[in-house]
Amino acid sequence: MISALVLAPLPLLAIWLGGPWLVLLTALVGAVMAWEWGRLCRGVSRRRFAPGAVEALVLAVVLAAIAVAAAAAMPTAFIVAAAGAGLVYAAARQRPGGQALWTALGTLWVTLPCLCFLWLAQSQAGGRALLIWLLAVVWATDIGAYAAGRSIGGPRLAPRLSPRKTWAGLAGGVLSAALAGGAAALLLAVPAPLLLVALSAGLAIVAQLGDLAESLAKRRFGVKDSSGLIPGHGGVLDRLDGLLAVVPAVALLTLASGRGVLAWH
Q: Distance of alpha carbon 101 from its chain centroid, rounded?
């Protein structure tokens, strides 16, 4: 709880200030997640330094610098090209016997949401309200899933991937996200409040899938946490795995509909 209280104001302040502050925070977070992924793919414990993790860090910084340069007007084609370049680079840099596919997929998993996040911030269909709603939905999902899972328990959701997750926790996360969507609909006076509530509930499921995806990777490499940077949470990847799945989903919905999801009617 203390870690959450300390960390939560940082992204909210960056979103509120916008401009270079949001870009710099996104770049920093992306670099840390890439470093953690390099450790994870080598089965490194939280107390050791991972050989090759520096390459992942350098890659993230380079991609973040490109994002900074294009942040004023970031076209969709740039997002796809940058993420694809990162994937190819990560795979090509792997030595024989390395985890090329996992490293490449992890690079895509980290860079694409960061670029989509900046695109949503800069596009006319996005902006400050959309980003805060996104964070509220993901945080509500995490809190609701944890509270319901701990208090109700019951059948496991995916015991082979994450033995602590339950169906009750999933239901609690969906309900909490729906409530967050309802609150956002009232505060922002969106044209279709029930549609936003339903979308928020659906994104809770997407966030849980992102959480399970990281659990799959940690099981694959025998790692409990991506790092020990955040007391009580593990690493930045452990904290943002749900958001990494939700942000590209919202960006895709925005592109498909031609308007921001908060303007749907």
A: 20
